[in-house]
């Protein structure tokens, strides 16, 4: 029977490679997503980098995101407006507010889901988005429903691809 040699500890320092600025660790897609439940309303977000609409040399990075809103409560809710906080890799913040989502103010009965897709342009290869939906119940109660932070990140594989 052959015995494998005992592992030898690595004694030399690992060589360091310069890393490009503003590049986050290579994220797994499930780590980019967000999921939050507030007042019985679940908001699940799945972002994606859109390479065919992006141009890194022109500092244009386009990200799409798909949002699923599910009423897990016992009463109907209506989405009235949204607020976003968008932060790029340099820490620049942009606040966006508006009525409804994609031109709609969906009403969700208990157990119903509404899904939509949108996009966000950035001038850096990564950033974050988070925010809230302003909703109301039929009895007039106002709700502030959290959209948990999610990450917009150009995959490292795309970043390493020469463009030309």
Based on secondary structure, the structural category is mainly beta
Report how far the terminal alpha carbons are from each other.
55 Å
Gyration radius from CA atoms, angstroms:
21 Å
Give a count of the beta strands, DSSP E runs of length 2 or more. 9
Q: How large a portion of the residues is in β-strands, by DSSP E? A: over 45%
Low-confidence stretches: 1-27
Summed up, the helix count is: 2
Name the helicity range.
under 10%
Query: What is the approximate shape?
Result: elongated
Characterize the largest beta sheet: strand count, sense, and whether it forms a barrel: 5 strands, antiparallel
Helix and strand run = HEEEEEEEEEH
Q: Could you tell me the mean pLDDT?
A: 85
Quaternary state of this entry equals: single chain
Please give a structural write-up.
The protein is mainly beta and 164 residues long. The protein has two helices and nine strands; from the N terminus they run H-E-E-E-E-E-E-E-E-E-H. The strands form two sheets. Strands 4, 5, 6, 8 and 9 form a five-stranded antiparallel β-sheet that branches.
Layout: helices, strands, pairs:
Layout: H1 29-32, E1 34-38, E2 41-49, E3 61-71, E4 77-88, E5 93-99, E6 107-108, E7 113-122, E8 126-137, E9 142-153, H2 156-160
Antiparallel strand pairs: 1-2, 2-3, 3-7, 4-5, 4-6, 4-8, 8-9
What key phrases describe this protein's structure?
elongated, 5-stranded antiparallel sheet, mainly beta, 164 residues, disordered N terminus, 4-stranded antiparallel sheet, 49% strand
Question: What does this entry show, briefly?
Answer:
The protein is mainly β.
């Amino acid at each position: 029977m052959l015995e494998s040699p005992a592992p030898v500890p690595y004694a030399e320092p690992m060589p360091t490679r310069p890393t490009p600025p503003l590049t986050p660790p290579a994220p797994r897609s499930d780590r980019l997503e967000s999921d939050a439940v507030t007042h019985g309303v679940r908001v699940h977000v799945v972002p994606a980098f859109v390479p065919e609409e992006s141009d890194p040399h022109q500092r244009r990075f386009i990200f799409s995101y798909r949002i699923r809103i599910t009423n897990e409560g016992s009463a109907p809710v209506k989405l009235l407006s949204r607020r976003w906080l968008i932060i790029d890799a340099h820490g620049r913040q942009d606040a966006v507010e508006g009525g409804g989502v994609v031109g709609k103010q969906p009403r969700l009965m208990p157990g119903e889901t509404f899904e939509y897709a949108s996009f966000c342009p950035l001038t850096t290869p990564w950033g974050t988005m988070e925010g809230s939906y302003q909703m109301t119940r039929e009895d007039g109660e106002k709700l502030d429903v959290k959209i948990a932070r999610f990450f917009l990140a150009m995959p490292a594989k795309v970043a390493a691809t020469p463009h030309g």
